[in-house]
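As a warm-up, study this chain.
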Amino acid sequence: MSEIIKKYTNGEVTVVWKPDVCIHSRLCWTQLSEVFDPRKRPWINMEGADTAHIIDQVSKCPSGALSYYLQDEANPATEINADTKVEVSPNGPLLVYGNLTVKLKDGTEENKSRVTAFCRCGKSSNKPFCDGSHISAGFED
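Now compare it with the structure written out below.
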């Protein structure tokens, strides 16, 4: 099964959405509903805000399901220059900000950047990563 990736652009910035990675934190549409509205199709309206506001909101995505690249960049930015930060999300995943390599139980490695959400509830079908199962499981911590 191939990963679904959707791209939306306003000519200056392209927003990349990976629905299989989304943990449904709702930050995107509760904080910038002019651009992100899950009730509409397409659900991302790149004309709803200026590029700076879109970039700012996409940068807050805790799972990395949303990312962006500027049109003048040859390839999407995959790494950030920042110290690694770990944050416990209330009733949700463990968020790790920064560049990391995750060694999976089968020995393969995945390079992650920006924000990576790790499961804390034990219900994810995509362990060690969060898939949003904590919501339906009623996880509280």
